[in-house]
Structure formats: C-alpha cells, structure tokens
Amino acid sequence: MSSPRILPPARRQVLVADLAAHVGARLDGDPSANVASVVLDNRRTVPGDLFAAVPGARVHGAAFADDAVRRGATAVLTDAAGAQIVRDAGCAVPVLVVEDVRAALGASAAHVHGEPAEVMTTFGVTGTNGKTTTTFLLDHALRALGRRTGLVGTVETRFGETVVPSTLTTPEAPELQGWLAAMVADDVDTLAMEVSSHSIAMHRVDGIVFDVVGFTNLSQDHLDFHGTFEEYFATKAELFGPQRARRAVVVVDDEWGARMAREARVPVTTVATAGADADWTVRDAETEAGGTRLTLVHRDGRRVPTRVALPGGFNVANAALACVMLLESGVDADELVAALGPEGFDARVPGRMEVLSDAPRVVVDFAHNADALELALRSLRTTTPGRLVVVFGATGERDRGKRPHMGAVAARWADVVVVTDDDPHGEPPAPIRAEVLAGARAATGREGPGPEILEVAPRAEAIRQTVLEAGDSDTVLLAGRGHETVQEVDGVDLPLDDRVEARAALAARTAGRERTPATPHDEGDTHA
Ligand SMILES: CC(=O)N[C@H]1[C@@H](OP(=O)(O)OP(=O)(O)OC[C@H]2O[C@@H](n3ccc(=O)[nH]c3=O)[C@H](O)[C@@H]2O)O[C@H](CO)[C@@H](O)[C@@H]1O[C@H](C)C(=O)N[C@@H](C)C(=O)N[C@H](CCC(=O)O)C(=O)O
Ligand SMILES: Nc1ncnc2c1ncn2[C@@H]1O[C@H](COP(=O)(O)OP(=O)(O)OP(=O)(O)O)[C@@H](O)[C@H]1O
C-alpha cells in the first residue's frame, strides 16, 4: 500500500547540469535536460521526474529505469553499476552517476524542490517511543499560536486541508521534499516531523537542517535493522550534529538521553521528569481526569505551568519535550501558556492512549515493544479500580528478541493477559504467539496471584470476547496496533482496526444490556 503522490502545484525546472554540479555527480548525457521532481519507484513516475535508481536490499532500482523513462522520467540518478544497467537497457536520457545514490538523494530532492525546509521553522523528533505523540503535541501548540503547520509522521502527513495516511514514519527523501515544497506553496510556515532511525541511516532526511531536534528516549526496538544497541544509538546521534540540526532538546530520564546530551554536537537543552539533573525539570505533576497538570521549572527559576490532556506518565515527558522545543525555537513562554489555555496540550493522537469508552474503559495504544507496553500498563494500573486486561501480540519478521519480553511485561502488570496476533507479515502467527506466551508464563517478579493467561486468535475475536467479558470497572488495553487499519497476514493485507472492532463489541454489549437489564458483565467488577 502506498500513499498518493503529492507535489507542489507548480514545479521548478532544474537543469541536470546544475543538479550534477550541486551533488558532485558525473553527468553522462545531455546537460540541457531539465527535471522538476524526483522519484524512487518507476510505478510512481510522472513526466519530468529524475528517477533515482538505488541499489536496494532486494533489487537494483536501475532495473526499472527503462519503464520510468517510458513514463516520462527525463534523467536518472544512480551509481556506476546502475549506469551500466541503464545503458544496457538502451535508455537515452542523461544519467547522473554518484558513488552512493542514497547519500546524494536528499540533497538532489531538496535542490530540485528549491530547499523548502529552509523557508520554514522545522522541528524533528526522534527516539524509540513518543515521536508521534510529541509531534502531535507540537502541532497542536503551534496551531494554537497561530502558525500554519505541516505534520509528517507514522499516522499521517497533514497540512491545510490535506491529510494523507502514511506508509512509513519518515518518507523517502524524494517524497518528503515534494511534500515540503507542497507545504511551502500552501504557505505552511512551521513543520513538525518524526525522524525514525531508519530514515537517518537511509539518508531520508538529508537536505534538512532542523531548527530544533528533540530526543524522547531509547529502548529495545529495531535491532533487526541496527544490529546492536550501540549502533542504534549512534544512528540517532547523527541527528544531533550541525549537518542535521541547529539546536537540540533532550529528555534525560534514561541513560541514553543523558549520553545523547553529552555527545550532541549542537547546543543542547535538557529536560527531566524523574529527578535527573537538567536545565528544565518537571515539578508538581498532578494526575487528574483525562490528563496531568505540571510545571516546568528552569535552573534559573523560570516557571512554565502547563497541562497534557492525555493519560500516562510518559505523556508528561512528551509534553515537557514539546514545550521546551517550542521555547528553544524562540516562542515566548507567556504567549505559549496563553495560547494553550487551561486545557494545555490537548491533542488527540490517533491510537495513542486513545480512550474509547469509560465502563469498561477501553484504551487503544500503539505500544509495540516491551518498554512501551510496561509504561502503558503501569500508568493504567493506577487508575483502574477493577481488572487490568491487555490484548496484544508481537509482529512477525521483526526483532524476535522482544516477543518473550513483551509477554513477561504483560504478565507482570496485567490481571488478564490475552495473547493474540499483531502483524504476522509473512510468518505463521501461532509460533509468534507461542513465543509471547512462553515469556508470559515464565514471568516472575509479581506479588500475589499470577495473571490469567489466554490465547485467542484471530485478533478481532480476541477484542470482541475481551470487551464483551470485561466488567464495568475494568480497563481493557488493546496494545500494539494503534491507528493501523490493515493487518498483514501471510503477505495479504486484511482490513483490521482495533478501534472499529472495539466499538462494535461495545455496541453489542450495550444492545445485550438493553435486552437483559442485569448482565453478567457486572460480576467482573468484584475482581480486585
Ligand atoms: C529496510 C528499509 O527501510 N527498506 C526500504 C528500502 O527497501 P529496499 O532496499 O529493500 O528496496 P528494494 O525493494 O531492494 O528496491 C530497490 C529500489 O528499487 C525500487 N523499485 C523496486 C521495485 C519496483 O517494482 N520498482 C522500483 O522502482 C525501489 O523503490 C527502491 O528504490 O527502500 C524502499 C524504497 O524506498 C523502502 O520502501 C523500504 O522500506 C520498507 C518498506 C520498510 O518497511 N521500511 C521500514 C522498516 C522503515 O523504514 N521503518 C521506519 C520506522 C520504523 C519505526 O520507528 O517503527 C520508517 O521511517 O518508517
Ligand atoms: N515518552 C514515552 N516514553 C515511553 N513510551 C511512550 C512515550 N510516548 C509514548 N509511548 C508509548 O509508545 C507508543 C508509541 O507512541 P508514539 O506513537 O508517540 O511513539 P513513536 O516513537 O512515534 O513510535 P513509532 O515510531 O513506533 O510509531 C505509545 O502508544 C505509548 O504506549
């Protein structure tokens, strides 16, 4: 599934000779040809594109150059091996030859689109968890301040009236720069975007120097791609240097944040929510219905009172990060507090601690690694009078090591653990569930009776059964898929939205009650 291609309404024509000089490419062919945009995939080519033929993990993009040219590509950017493939295919367009295509791609796309990031204020957020939430909080505050905003991340790309669901957290550079140019054409003045570690490693954000970058935290994820934690950290750390950022705000609640703050090569402001030494610390955090009220206090005594209208202790960190990033960009503290009003950071983030109902409380959350799952469960535990029930699974073909950890965390913090499927992708689902269940059954470190551990598949059935059987004072956490609307099983995309399934079960529950006033659901309330 891929999102529709968005380009600015009027595209600039750029001479390939100028572009080659800009990115240090050897130009083979007619220097007077023009390009007006850049594309990575032959199937998405429009006339006037520069087709970037990247040697991928599976195939060399040059294999598709002839088709791209048939669709109107006017030049090709590739490496020496790609240039040979392009010539052998008899393509007559000029070829820009570089050593590393991905390394030249961001600068090429930014140049072709007129360096759009340079005319906006740009915020980039990275870290294992909290990127989407923090960018939504930034976007909410910026709009309250009267800015015209653009948002790019896992859920969607959004500006003005345009909202397009995302396929990647951080798009490839040609798509990203096309988006940014379309935003500039629509008078967007401020961008908040998520920067995944994949995107840094794969040069997707080359061509952007962010005004302010933010770091949330680091925990186990994506080790299938990065190999080691050290490598994962080093990739994220690249964002905190002068080629990619002007200044940084780092949450130093974990050791990785503290290290990022020490090793950053741009001016850093630190934020702490849990007692670490920092420039800004969170004080007087008070949980209240639907959120937390808090005050940010600077070393020099400045105080910024605010509020976040999302459940979960970690959302205090996300709001604190967003707040300090705004201050570091030059926003005046009093103006920010006034613009946010008494509700504070009041963004609705699809699939992130999204509360669907009150009795039982059904919450959909994107927690899909052990760390996020633990934090989500712990924060819901404190506000659940009945049982805490979690429905979740682990993804196939991704970081297998996290499966037993997720099972263990669920067993430690929930009263009922319902293990089901997440996105199995090409892997058979039952063995994935078995690895999660093994972790749950082996879990230790819990006081009192152990949890009830169930295996229910498919996921829609697990959600239906769990919501129907929950007591009014229970909390049901549907974890792992958040806003997602398709589930890949055995290579086939099946429609599945946790929120749709849960709402259907809640409606069935209400209908059942209307037919039979005293229902067995209430019995669950007695369980402590
Ligand atoms: C590991 C990874 O990121 N891989 C990306 C990489 O794939 P690849 O190297 O295997 O490419 P390939 O299939 O060999 O193809 C090589 C080239 O031929 C082109 N091609 C290929 C086939 C064709 O018919 N026509 C064509 O033009 C491709 O566009 C590509 O440029 O280049 C592709 C083209 O842009 C990306 O789609 C692909 O992302 C895949 C889909 C992906 O799932 N990426 C995930 C892991 C990712 O990036 N995730 C992060 C965040 C994760 C998180 O924080 O949770 C993200 O930012 O989304
Ligand atoms: N600051 C945080 N610390 C730890 N966990 C968090 C934090 N913020 C959010 N989470 C948890 O992580 C999940 C993902 O949150 P969010 O989508 O904001 O992060 P993300 O970094 O964008 O993740 P991804 O890149 O996987 O989309 C949430 O559903 C929540 O459970």
From TrEMBL:
Keywords, in A-Z order:
ATP-binding, Cell cycle, Cell division, Cell shape, Cell wall biogenesis/degradation, Cytoplasm, Ligase, Magnesium, Nucleotide-binding, Peptidoglycan synthesis
> Main localization of the protein?
cytoplasm
Q: How is it modified after translation?
A: Carboxylation is probably crucial for Mg(2+) binding and, consequently, for the gamma-phosphate positioning of ATP.
Listed GO biological process terms? cell division; cell wall organization; peptidoglycan biosynthetic process; regulation of cell shape
Would you tell me the Gene Ontology cellular component terms?
cytoplasm
Annotated compartments: Cytoplasm
Q: What class of enzyme is it?
A: ligase
Which residues does the annotation say bind ATP? 127-133
- All copies of the Mur ligase central domain together span 125-325
Mark the residues carrying the PTM N6-carboxylysine: 236
Required cofactors, per record? Mg(2+)
Look up the EC number in the record and give it: 6.3.2.-
* Domain spans labelled Mur ligase C-terminal: 351-482
The family line of this record is: Belongs to the MurCDEF family. MurE subfamily.
Q: What is this protein called?
A: UDP-N-acetylmuramyl-tripeptide synthetase
Q: Give the classification, highest ranks.
A: Bacteria, Bacillati, Actinomycetota, Actinomycetes, Micrococcales
Task: List the gene name.
Answer: murE
